[in-house]
Amino acid sequence: MQVDDSEVIGFLLQTEIIPLCLRTMEMGSELSKTVATFIVQKILLDDIGLRYICATAERFFAVATVLAQMVQALAEQPSARLLKHIIRCYLRLTENQRACAALNSCLPTVLKDGTFNNFLLDDNVTRRWLQQLLSNMSIAGLGGGSSHTGMGGGGSLGGMG
Predict the structure, then answer these.
(1) Which Pfam families match (predicted)?
(2) How high is the pLDDT of residue 143?
């Protein structure tokens, strides 16, 4: 039986999957963190999931804060697989205009300053994703941005974007 990904994502979002994944991303083993981050990535890659995460500032910043903590830890002890999933999550978040603008204030410096350059030499896909992420951030910083809908939730990001 083939099930539409959007149906699965919709179902998962009705559960406590996001908070559970975020806790695991903060405190789990490397394998658990990788699996939890992959789940968050899959949710974000679906339009329903991206809208859900970006619907309120609280949800967005919960995800962004955990991703930032993980990146800081990876600067000390890199994991190629985990970094790839984190960068992909950030890249997808930049497809939401207000999330992209908010990331300008909370994207970890180590993603912008070349800390991971040598580590990503042999991973063309992740290196391209990181370059695209930084390009999207640069465009958003210049007042550009994507045409995707912004964060809802009654203007809960007021002043952040």
Answers:
(1) Rcd1 (PF04078)
(2) 60
